[in-house]
Design brief:
Structural class: alpha+beta
Largest sheet: 5 strands, mixed, barrel
Radius of gyration: 58 Å
Number of helices: 9
Distance between the termini: 181 Å
Length: 576
Amino acid sequence: MASEQNDMPLKPVAPVSDEEDYEHLLEDYSHFAPPAQGEILEGRVLKVTAKEVIVDFGYKSEGLVPIEQFLQPDGQVLVERGDIIDVMVDHGGAELDGYILLSHEKAARIRAWDNLEKAHREQLLVSGLVLGRTKGGLSVDVGVRAFMPSSQIDLRPIHNPDALIGQNIPVKIVKLNRRRGNVVVSRKLAIEEEQNVRKTTTLEALQEGAIVTGAVKNLTEYGAFIDLGGLDGLLHVSDMSYGRVNHPSEVVSVGDAVTVKVLKFDRAKERVSLGLKQLAPDPWEAVAERYPAGARVVGRVVSITDYGAFVELEPGVEALIHISEMTWSRRMKHPSKIVRPGDQVEAVVLAIQPGEHRISLGIKQLEADPWTTVESRYSVGSVVEGRVRKLTDFGAFVEIEEGIDGLVHVSDLSWSKRVKHPSEILKKGQVVQAVVLHIDGSGRRLSLGVKQLQPDAWELFFRSHQVGDVLRGRVCRAASFGLFVELADGVEGLCHLSEIPGSADRAKGEPPLDIGREYDFKIIRMSEAEKKIGLSIRALSADEERSRLEHYQRQAAAATLTIEEVINLKGQGDAR
C-alpha cells in the first residue's frame, strides 16, 4: 500500500501566492510526516480480524493493533468497525506487512495518566471499576490500577466492602505519583461532593408543608431518617401512624421510598421534621359521632399499666379502661387479673374528649351495680357470711358478695374484750359471719357487727340481777378512787374506796384489797343505759349486823331469852 501511494501521480500544485497559502499546503501534507515519539493519535477502526485491529490513524500507512489489547477476560472484543480509539506508534514506527505497529494499551495508559492528573488538579470526579479486595482497602481501575483505603469507601464504616466489587463507582483522586505509578482514590469524597450538590438543591426548594419523597436511610428506636436528597429528615415514630407503633420497622424498612410531609424546617440548622400520618385524615376528627357516651364498643387490648388497660377501637383511636371501671369489686389489685394484651373486649363508653384524644371506657357497666339493689336483698338484723378482705385500725372490711363490702367496726367485734385492733379477733382471708347493722345503698355503705351474733353480756347481767344482790367478784384493777371488779365475763363493777372498810388506813399507793383475789360484794347501784354497776363491801357488814339483831329480837319475842341475855349476847357480838 505504501508503494502504491508512492507511485500515485502528483496533482499539479497551484503556485504559492503568499504566506497563508504556504501554511495551508503544509497542513495538507503534514499527515505524511512521521508522528513524534510518544505522541498519542486518534485512529478509526477500519477492520477487526481474529488477530488484529486495522486502524486509520492519519498516516501514509494504516496501523495494526494486536487483538489481545481489546479482549475482555471472557474473550469478548471491546471494539468494532468505526470506533475512534487512542493509539501510538510502537517499536519506533516499524512496519509489519505494510502496516505500522501501534499500541492501544500504551496510548490508553498515557491518556489515563493525563486525565488523572487533570482530575487531581481540578478536583474532578472520575469513574472507577472496583476490581477486588486488597490489604487495607479496595483495588480500583481508573484507567490505571488505583488503591482506595477502607476509610475512604463510604461516609460511615462499611461492613461488606465486597458488595462493591464489579461496580463502577465515582471517585476523587486523593494522591497521584505518575513516576511511581501510584494513585489513591476516595469514594467518600465523591459521595460528600454529590451530597453537597444535592443538599444545596434540596435546601433551596424545601419548605414547611411541602410534600416530598425520600428514601429510608436508617432506623432507630425513636424513628427513621429519610434521605431527601443530600439532606436527612427525621420521621419520628409518633408521626408514622395514627395507630400504635412500637418500632419504626413496623411501618418502613431501610431503602423504602416514602412520601412524607415537611412538618418543621430549620434552614439554619438544616433540621427537618417529617410526618407520614399527616397525609391521612385524623381519625379523632369525627370520633365523638362514632363513639358517643353510653355506646357499647368492641376493641383490642394493646397495653396494660398499673392503673388500667388501653384498648384500640380502630387504628389511631385508643381508649382507657381504668382499673376502677373493670369490676364492681374493690379487691382487684391489677388489670392483668381481668384482661391481657391482645384480648378482644366489650365495653361501655363513659366519657369522650376528642380535643385531648381521650376516651374512657368501663367493663363493669355491662352488669348492674350491685349497690342499687343491696337494700332489697339484705335487711338490718340479717346474718350474712363473707371473707375478710382488709384490716384497718378502725375495723375490718368483709366482702359478702362481688362488689359489696361491709365494715365491721372495731367496737362491734366483741361485747366483753377491749379490742384495740381487729387483728386481735380476725385475720385477712378468714370467712366470718356477721349481723347487718345498717344499709346505705346510695352512699355505698354497709355496717356489720360480729359481737351481735352473741347476746350482750351487760344486757343479760341487768336482766338477772338487781340492787341488793350479793355476788362474788374478782378484783381486776385499781384506780385512785376505787377498785374495778369483774362480776361476769365482760361485765365489771366499781367498788368505791368509801365502800371498803379500812381503806383509809392503807399505805399510800397500796390497794385496800388484793388484786386478782375474789371477794363478796353487794350491788348498791345499777345503770343499764350507762352500763355502770356500783358495789360495796361496807354494806355487807351492815346487813350482817342487822340480820343478827333481827334474829335476837325474834328469840326474845319467843321468850327463849331474857332481855338481859339479849343485851349480853349483843355485847358479845360487838366484842367479836
